[in-house]
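The instructor's notes for this session suggest beginning with a concrete chain rather than abstract definitions. Hand out the sequence below and ask the class to guess, before any prediction is shown, which regions might be ordered.
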Amino acid sequence: MATPSQDLLVYVQSSLSSGKTPDAIRAELKTAGWADADVDAAFGVLSPAPLPVLSPTNHQSRKWLIIAVCFVVVVALVVLIFFIFRKKQPVVTQSIQNSNANVLVTPKNEEVAEDKPSAEKVVIDDFGLILPVVNLSPSANCYLEDGVLNKVVLTSKILPSADSTTWNKQLSGEDKWNQELVDDLLTQNIWPIGLFKDAMKKPRFQMPDFSDVSTVSPEKVQAIKYGSYRNLAKVVALDAISRARKGDVSNGVAEALAIAVYGQRMAVSQIDQIGYVNGLGIKQTGLDALKTIIGLGKLSSGDIKNADSVLYSLEDTGPSLANVFKVSYWIKRNDLNNVFNNPADYYEDELAKKLRDPYFFELPQTINLMGELFRKSIEKTKESCHEFVDESIDQSVIDEVKKMEGENAFGRFYTYQIGYHDAMILNERCTDLALVATVRAALSAAAASAK
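After discussion, reveal the predicted structure:
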């Protein structure tokens, strides 16, 4: 029979003491990747063979029963003590999670150098990074299905070479306004425009993949069609400007504001950093359209008052940015688990081999280091906006991770990159606040000119 490891014995004994059945424990260990032979060995040590049932009237048999039980207990204690004090052996990579913490133990790795210290058990600290599961009904959620986003058309029958750049130039005023060209685009997008306008009336935004952030993987994030959201917002912004230019100024203003509000709802939802930036991008598209309409000089005092009221309600996204960092923590944590378990899927042979050494890549320590970094970013969301300083990643850190020198070199390099990107996200929030202030100033100037 295989000799069970100390960690496996402790886990099985703890689970039996908590009331779990052997079948339930076996199922958990099998899911975690344990071999049946190791599990059987653990139960063999901790679960003595059943004794025969003896007649209560046979006093001699009772005496031998007591002796047998004592003998088995003594043997079990001796074996357990032996394994407690023997040299620790590395075990599987899977997490054993209870209600208080996650405990990770490092995997057995024949390639790990003999003179490198093996990673110890480390409790993962998720304090301040947990988010609730969010489930919105379709009637309250302004999220759009891929089927709608896939129907957005950016080509033109009038101008076959038309693409996203063409419409950006129309929106920004870089190209002279071409009403015929814009009308052609709007005609081809009647259906998605209508659905987007309906969605803009709903009070909240929640991407279904981010309802339970603990399950979000980088692959899920990459599959989201954020670019299609922005393209559709640009089409609707052209519709808003077109309405205003044709004399329907009030509806043009309302439509531009609705786009900005939609972007705000995306940015303040439970979403990742890419989604946050795209939400602010959609908001900017609406605000840019509004600035263009203001520049036409046709706003009534009622239009100006309504627009300023909506802009005032577009609060600072800083408080919600804290949740964005929490979502990002779970995405990065799941990514780290994938790299740790399958390094060859992410890196070339030499580096992948290094990452199998727990001395150079300590998974639980890296997760805790990353968690601390995200907690610091969350604290910065409470601060006033500051000028962003572009900092390049320290070359010495890059050189270190290439050589894999120093304990947890990969983990430190990974978290360094996160800190760099977090600073850029914080700057996006400040840029958004400045844009809202600029548009409100344009409204004030329009109000003054109308007097």
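Then share the key points. The two ends are 94 Å apart (CA to CA). The mean pLDDT is 80.
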